[in-house]
Amino acid sequence: MHADLSRSTFRPERHYSAVIAQQGRVQLDADLNEQTAIQLHEARIRTADLIGRHGGPRDATGFHIEYVGGKLDIDTLYIGGGRYYVDGILCDADRPAPDTPVPDEDTADQPPAAAQPFWDYWNQPDGFRDPERPGDRLPSPGQSPFVAYLKVWERTVSAAEDPALREVALGAALPDTAVRSKVVWQVLPLSLGELEIEDADPSKEVVRAAFDRWAQRQAAPATRLAARAERPEHADEDPCLVRPDARYRGQENQLYRVEVHAGGEAKDATFKWSRENGSVVFPIDGLDGTWAELSTLGFDDKLDLDVGDLVEVTDTAYASRPDALPLLRVEELDLPGRRVRLSAEPDAHVGRLPHLHPFLRRWDHHEGPRRKGRTAALKGGAIPVTEGEWLPLEDGVEVYFAAGGTYRTGDHWLIPARTATGGVDWPTDPARRPLLRQPAGIERHFAPLALVKGEEGAVDLRLAFGPLASSIPAADEATLAAEASAAREERAAEADPSGGRSQTTATAEAAVEGDE
After folding, report:
1. In the predicted model, is pLDDT for residue 393 greater than 90?
2. Secondary structure (3-state) at 39
C-alpha cells in the first residue's frame, strides 16, 4: 500500500497469532499494522475454509447479473445487491440509499429520492468503465456468449482522495494521520475464447472449471525480485555522514518501494521507485494545460516538490483501474501560487473531475541506472526493466529482476533500508545471497458470476450457502423408545403397588414392618 510506513513485518509463514505489547517500550506502526494483518488473514482464511473459494448467503446472495441490450443506448449489465465472498473477502454490492437534505420551501412537498436496488456496469462504484474506450465496452453476446466475473483486490486510500480522513482540528500545516485499506470489486466481461472454451453453449461445470484454471494463471505472480545494499564507488566522497563500512549510504532510514509501471514482457515493462513507499502526494485543485494548481507544495524539504521530480497525475478512477500513464517531469515551480508546470499536459482521462479527487504522486527516480558507463534512458518517465543483472537505485541499494518474468502494473516490492546496520532488510540464504521474492502485492481474486447469452438471458454461475444455525432437532429414535419404556414402567408401578409380588408375601412383609 502507498503509505508512510517504517516497514511491513507480517509474514503468514511465521504463524504468529498476536502482537504482544511490552511495558515501557516504543510503539511502532509496524507492530500495530502486523496485528491488524494477522487478524484479517485469520478471518479470511477461516471464511474461505467454511464457504469455499467463493459464495454468498442463500437469502442475500449479491451480484445477480442481468444483461440489458436493446433498451438502452449502450449495452450494460445490471448488478444486483447483496453480499458475496471471494477467497474469504467480503464484497458488498448493496447500493446505499441517497441522503436526504433538510427541505426548503421549494422542495418541501417533494418525496425523497428512492435508491436503485442495483448497480449497472457503467456506474459500479469502483469500476470506472468509460463508454468512449472500446476496450471497456461489453462484447456482443449475439456473436458469442461471455462470462461476467468478479475481480477483487485492495488498495490504499489516503486523505488526498478522501478529505474526510483528515482531522481538521490538527490544522493544515500537519500531515494526515492513518490511511485506509479498501476492498475494490469490479464486474468485468471475459470471452469464452480467453477461457479456451470452444463450445458455444457450454455447461455450468465446464465454464466453472475453465474459469478456475484462468483465475489461477491470473492470480499467480509471474516475476520475482531480489534486493541488496552494496557499497557504491563514490562512497568515500562523504566519509563523515555514515559509517565508513556501511553498504547502504543513505543518511536516514527509508522504505523503498519498487513498483511495476507498464506491464508485459521484460522488453516492454518498466518500473519506478520511491524512497517513501510512494506516500508523497499533493492534492490537485485544478489543471490548466501543463500547469497544475496544488493544495500544498509539501511540508518540508524531504516531502516537497522540486524541479526535475517525476510525478504521476492520478485520481480515484485511475488508481482503481489501474492504468500505466506516462510519468511527467516537474519543469517549473510557482511557490506563491502553489503551482507546478509539468513537462506535458496530463492525459485527458485523468485529473479533470474534482469529485474523483485528483492528486500528484511523487516518485524518486530521475534517470535509468548507470551500467557499464552508460545511463539508460527513461521510457514513459519510468525505468526499463532489465533482467538478470543488479540495477542500482541510490545510496548503494540495488535490485535484481529474475529472468523470464511477466510484469503486471501495480505489482511492487518493499525494501527497508537502515542506517544502524548499513544495509537493507532482505532475506538471504546461509551464504548470504539475496533470495528472490514474489511481489508484496497486488493480490488479485476472481469469481465467475454468469454466462451471459444476450437476450436469451444469463446462466447463473454463483454459489450459495445456508446458515449454520437451525432449529433444535428432536431426540433420536433410541432416546424416544427409552423414554416411552420408562413411562410404561412408571404407570405400571402406580397401578400395582405390590410391584408384581403375591398377596401373601406382601401381607407378611407389611406385618414385619409393623412389628418393628
Report:
1. yes
2. helix
